[in-house]
Amino acid sequence: MENEKQNKKLKILCLHGFRNSGAILQEQVETWPQSLLQKLDLFFMDGPYPAQGKSGVDGIYEPPFYEWFQADQEYKEFYNFEECLEKIQEFMVAHGPFDGILGFSQVHSVP
Predict the structure, then answer these.
(1) What superkingdom heads the lineage (predicted)?
(2) The domain that contains 53 carries what CATH number?
């Protein structure tokens, strides 16, 4: 029984960064050492909203790109944040339970 616990993979929810995607994060994470990856069961989720502007990874990775929530042009007002949390919760209920969450920053550069 104890050996089973030691061999159990950690189930991790992976959330991508600003105007990115789950597929891109997955591609980036796959460069990690196999000795680590073999201990993890990774679940990649796309943000619920299509990117409303240019992605910082456009030209490096193929679209589509997603956002977790949206903002006005000055990034002073934010929209759809509560709805985003609901989408993440629904994903966690459908695919969880999870042992942890890996997240990239939602940070952006203000024009």
Answers:
(1) Eukaryota
(2) 3.40.50.1820
d(CA 108, CA 66): 13
Q: Is the dihedral angle over the CA atoms 30, 32, 90, 96 positive or is it negative?
A: positive
Q: Which domain holds residue 65?
A: 2-103
Structure tokens at 70: 């949206």
Residue whose entry in the numeric block shows the structure tokens 């007002």: 77
Q: Are 9 and 40 in contact (CB under 8 A)?
A: yes
Within a domain: 83: yes
When divided into structural domains, the chain yields a total of 1
Residue pLDDT, tens place only, 77-108: 888 889 999 999 999 999 999 999 999 775 55
Q: Model-level pTM?
A: 0.82
